[in-house]
Amino acid sequence: MGKGRKVSGGVTRRSFLKVAGSGAALTEVLTGCRPSAEVAVAEEQPQVATKVSVTLRVNGKSHRLQLEPRVTLLNALRHHLHLTGAKPVCDRGECGACTVLMDGKPIYSCMLLAVDADGHEITTVEGLAQDGRLHPLQAAFVEKDALQCGFCTPGFIMAALGLLRENKNPTLEQVRAALSGNICRCGVYTRIFEAVLEAAKKMQGRA
Amino acid sequence: MHSFDYRAPKDLEETLEEAAHWGEKGRLLAGGTDLILFMERGRLRPEVVIEVPRTEPFTTLEETNGMIRIGARVTMGQLEHSPLIREKLPVLSQAAGEVGSVQIRNLATIGGNIVTASPAGDTLPALLVLDAQLMLQKKGSLRTVPIDQFFLGPGQTVREPDEVLTEVRVPVKGDRFVTQFYKLAVRSYMDIAIVDVAIGVYTNGDGAVEDARIALGSVAPTPIRAREAEERLKGQVPTETLIDEVALLAQKASSPITDQRGSAEYRWLMVYRLTKRLLTNALLNSSASGHR
Ligand SMILES: Cc1cc2nc3c(=O)[nH]c(=O)nc-3n(C[C@H](O)[C@H](O)[C@H](O)COP(=O)(O)OP(=O)(O)OC[C@H]3O[C@@H](n4cnc5c(N)ncnc54)[C@H](O)[C@@H]3O)c2cc1C
Ligand code: FES
Ligand code: FES
Fold this sequence. Notes:
The complex is a heterodimer.
Chain A: H1 13-21, H2 24-31, H3 35-44, E1 52-58, E2 61-67, H4 73-80, E3 99-102, E4 105-108, H5 114-117, E5 121-123, H6 136-143, H7 153-166, H8 172-178, H9 189-203
Parallel strand pairs in A: 1-5
Antiparallel strand pairs in A: 1-2, 3-4, 3-5
Helix pairs in contact in A: 1-3, 6-9
Chain B: E1 5-7, H1 12-22, E2 26-29, H2 35-40, E3 48-51, E4 61-64, E5 67-71, H3 76-81, H4 83-88, H5 90-97, H6 102-105, H7 110-116, H8 123-129, E6 133-138, E7 141-146, E8 151-153, E9 156-157, E10 164-171, E11 177-184, E12 195-203, E13 209-217, E14 224-225, H9 227-233, H10 240-253, H11 264-290
Parallel strand pairs in B: 1-3, 2-3
Antiparallel strand pairs in B: 4-5, 5-10, 6-7, 6-10, 8-9, 11-12, 12-13, 13-14
Helix pairs in contact in B: 9-10, 10-11
Bound molecules: flavin-adenine dinucleotide (FAD) and FE2/S2 (inorganic) cluster (2 copies).
């Protein structure tokens, strides 16, 4: 994924070679190759799809992007909006590290095309802290030491936030079920569950 | 992932146009939880991806004239939580709630689960038990296919490339139709079924079974109904011996294979055990509700 065959400036390799191919000398200068061989290789490359205009609404702000349809929401967030909270780990919907909220519900951003997120409200972990103050869930993760390497943490926080939006007072079993789509390689699960239960209490003003 | 072009039709009509125009070169995209993965692995390389719009009838979820209409784009999460489905079709709500994780269920749709036609698709045995009808539409024509005639093999169905699944219709069978569902998997969450069993029994006031459905997943090239087992129950007041016989007939209907999740022998044994357990539970529940 993300292996767009592009040369700089958003020109596709193919369209560039087509243009450049008409001037053999230019091609040679720019690519260091003999043009005929390079053009032949280029013809075998898959057709590069036309970019589409996508408006992503992330953490309350709208961003207008020109993207190839194959770009996932995860890659759009990371590579185009430089929001690196959502992490790529498995890139196939199994680990939860890329979890974000779409219209308030947790989803895997690696499993959704960015074009498909157009018109929806996306929330990433970057959108949680307000005026430099951590969200109660983030604060609870710190307080309960609910991380080791921390790579899974944004995904867990977003999945937990999705739960707490629908269920303000979850049981341990409900927390476990809601977080079953997230994997922590360091195995800090117990503390993660404690942090979520603690945050639920805090958010209801019970602690 | 390979490069492809993208179409976002606004409504049913435009979707049918796009599907007709691209035919085999196009692929419909709903939740994407199967399609993105297939494209990522290079198993599918459509030239054009056509988004199924989030509009009616694709998003319909309602009961009209004794029929529950479920749009193809209704998600597993919606089926799991919808009060209508929980009350009227608990077996479907339960099966949908067993798919993947919360994050998967918020994207994955019923239409995608059906058209992917995995032998392990969790909602499929439930839909078989419910006699679901699939509405397949293409430009200028509409046909209704009963779900037990839809699957041909793993990933293979009677759907033509330009046909769009618009909705699933399920007749409401009432309180006397009691259902059960069980997904057997290694992990309790986020795992593909080793065996799925769904059961529905319709009993009359005297405790005799008027009609029965027994559907199995992950134990044959497609989800299947164990028809001989169903027939054996009809008209009978079930006894322990009869239930045992029926479970053996269900076992006979299956043709499991060995894979990394379980051996053929294990699956075969589990079909027997689970059918027996679920059938017993269903009959207990139906006699319990009969006394009310
Ligand atoms: C991590 C993970 C875990 C999973 N766990 C489970 C599980 O436990 N149980 C289970 O059953 N499945 C599971 N799946 C598979 C998948 O989530 C389901 O099959 C899901 O229901 C597919 O729906 P979708 O909307 O995402 O389909 P998509 O990927 O959008 O589409 C799937 C196929 O259906 C076609 N299609 C979609 N909508 C239509 C339509 N309206 N008309 C015609 N064709 C259409 C598409 O062209 C495509 O070929 C899992 C997948 C992942 C990635
Ligand atoms: S990176 Fe998306 S689920 Fe693992
Ligand atoms: S803290 Fe390291 S993966 Fe969870």
